[in-house]
Automatic annotation (TrEMBL):
Its EC number is 2.6.1.-. Its cofactor is pyridoxal 5'-phosphate. GO terms for molecular function: transaminase activity. It comes from the Bacteria. PANTHER family: AMINOTRANSFERASE, ASPARTATE AMINOTRANSFERASE. This is Aminotransferase. Residues 33-379 form the Aminotransferase class I/classII large domain.
Length: 391
C-alpha cells in the first residue's frame, strides 16, 4: 500500500530522536527516572497572565474563525513590540498571524519557491526547514557549516553555493541546534549578497528573546524587505497554543493572505486573544526571569560538558541548546545516544536529525531542565562515558 503514497511524503524523513524518545518513555513507564534533554520545548508552563487571558477569551466566546491575517489587536501588539524592543516602525498590515512558526514557514516557502527551485540552508539546521521546501516541490541546498563560520551562512558561502536554481536563503538567529546568533553587520552582508543575485532573505527569529548577555538584532533593522518567521512558542512559552507570525514586505501580503485563507483559514482564535497578554509588563517580567534561568543553565552545562571531553567549539549566544562534538569518544551519535538511554536513562538528540555534515559525530543537549536535573545529568554522563569506553 505504501507504494501508492506520494513521492514527497516518502522523501520527508522522520525525526530520528522520536525512536529514542519512544524508548525513553517506555523506560519511564517502567519506573525509571529518565532525564529528558532531547526536547526543544521550554519546561516552564505558559505564564499565568497568558493563561488567564486565554480563559477569559473562551468565556467571552472567542472561538470562531478570525481574519486570515489574524485579529488586528494582536498584529498591532506585535508591531508595538517591534517598536519597543527593536526601535522599528513595522506596519501591522505587514504582519500575518500563523498556526505556530511552522505556519509562517509554510506561507513563506509556498510564496517564494517554485518546483525545482531551492533555498540555501545551513547544515546543521532545523530539519523541518528542508522538509517544508520538499512539500512545495522545491528543495534545500544544504551548505556545510562549522565552527569557522559559527555554523552560519556567510556571503562567501552564498557565492560558492548559489546556482541557477537558487531563489533565496533561510537562516536562523539564534539557530537550532547550535544556538549561534547572526549580528546586524552579518545580516546586512547576507542581505546584500542575496539582493545582488535577485534572491530573497528569510530569517527564522523564533528564539529571539532567548539570548544571553546580549539582545539579538532583527534582520528588519538592516533589510526591510526580508521575510521574518517568529513564534510564541519559545520565549513566550506557548508551544501548545500553536501560534506564530510572519513579517513580510507590503507587496507580498495580498498573496500571503490568499495562501493563508486556503491553507489553514486562520490561526486559533483563543490563542490569539491569549497572546495579547504576552506584551503586558507583568508577563514580560516573568519571561525575562525565565531567560535569566536559561542563562544560568547554559553557564553551568557548557563548561561541565567541556570538562567531560565534549567539544563545543562555539559558545552559543541564544536558544537553549548545546551542539557537541563527540569525536573524542568514538562511535556514531545514534549509538551513543542509545547507550545513554539504556544505561543511564538520559535522553539527548543525535546530530542526524539536523542534517548531514558531520552529523554522525554530534549530539544536541537541550537545557530545558532545572539546575538540579542538569547536575544529575552530568553525573550520569560521567558514569556513562566510562561504560561507553569499556563496551
Amino acid at each position: 500500500m505504501a507504494q501508492s503514497y506520494s513521492a514527497r511524503s516518502r522523501a520527508i524523513e522522520p525525526f530520528h530522536v522520536m525512536a529514542l524518545l519512544a524508548r525513553a518513555n517506555e523506560l519511564q513507564a517502567a519506573g525509571h527516572d529518565v532525564i529528558h534533554l532531547e526536547i526543544g520545548e521550554p519546561d516552564f508552563t505558559t505564564a499565568e497572565p497568558i493563561v488567564q487571558a486565554g480563559q477569559a477569551a473562551l468565556a467571552a466566546g472567542h472561538t470562531r474563525y478570525t481574519a486570515a491575517r489574524g485579529v488586528p489587536q494582536l498584529r498591532e501588539a506585535i508591531a508595538g513590540f517591534y517598536a519597543s524592543r527593536y526601535r522599528l516602525n513595522i506596519d501591522p498590515d505587514r504582519i500575518l498571524i500563523t498556526p505556530g512558526g511552522s505556519g509562517a514557514l509554510l506561507l513563506a516557502s509556498s510564496l517564494l519557491v517554485d518546483p525545482g527551485k531551492h533555498w540555501l540552508l545551513a547544515d546543521p539546521g532545523y530539519p523541518c526547514n528542508r522538509h517544508f521546501l520538499r512539500l512545495v516541490e522545491g528543495a534545500a541546498q544544504l551548505v556545510p557549516v562549522g565552527p569557522e563560520t559559527r555554523y552560519q551562512l556567510t556571503p562567501q558561502l552564498v557565492e560558492r553555493y548559489w546556482d541557477s536554481d537558487s531563489v533565496g536563503a533561510l537562516v536562523a538567529s539564534p539557530a537550532n541546534p547550535t544556538g549561534t546568533v547572526l549580528h546586524a553587520d552579518e545580516l546586512a552582508a547576507l542581505s546584500q549578497a542575496l539582493k545582488a543575485r535577485g534572491g530573497h532573505l528569510v530569517v527564522d527569529e523564533i528564539y529571539h528573546g532567548l539570548t544571553y548577555g546580549m539582545d539579538a538584532s532583527s534582520v528588519l533593522e538592516v533589510d526591510d524587505e526580508a521575510f521574518v518567521l517568529n513564534s510564541f512558542s519559545k520565549y513566550f512559552g506557548m508551544t501548545g497554543w500553536r501560534l506564530g507570525w510572519l513579517v513580510a514586505p507590503a507587496d507580498a501580503v495580498p498573496e500571503l493572505e490568499k495562501l493563508a485563507q486556503n491553507l489553514y483559514i486562520s490561526a486559533p482564535s483563543m490563542a490569539q486573544h491569549a497572546a495579547l497578554a504576552c506584551f503586558q509588563p507583568q508577563t514580560l517580567e516573568i519571561l525575562e526571569e525565565r531567560r535569566e534561568e536559561f542563562a544560568r543553565r547554559r553557564d553551568y552545562l557548557l563548561p561541565a560538558l567541556r570538562e567531560l571531553g565534549f567539544r563545543i567549539a562555539v559558545e552559543p549566544e541564544g536558544a537553549f541548546y548545546l551542539y557537541a562534538d563527540i569525536s573524542a569518544f568514538g562511535g556514531d551519535a545514534y549509538a551513543f545516544c542509545r547507550h545513554f538511554i539504556e544505561t543511564e536513562y538520559l535522553a539527548f538528540t543525535p546530530g542526524l536529525d539536523f542534517g548531514r555534515h558531520q552529523a554522525g559525530h554530534h549530539v544536541r543537549f537541550a537545557y530545558t531542565q532545572g539546575l538540579p536535573r542538569l547536575e544529575e545529568a552530568v553525573q550520569r554522563l560521567a558514569r556513562g562515558l566510562k561504560t561507553w569506553a569499556s563496551r
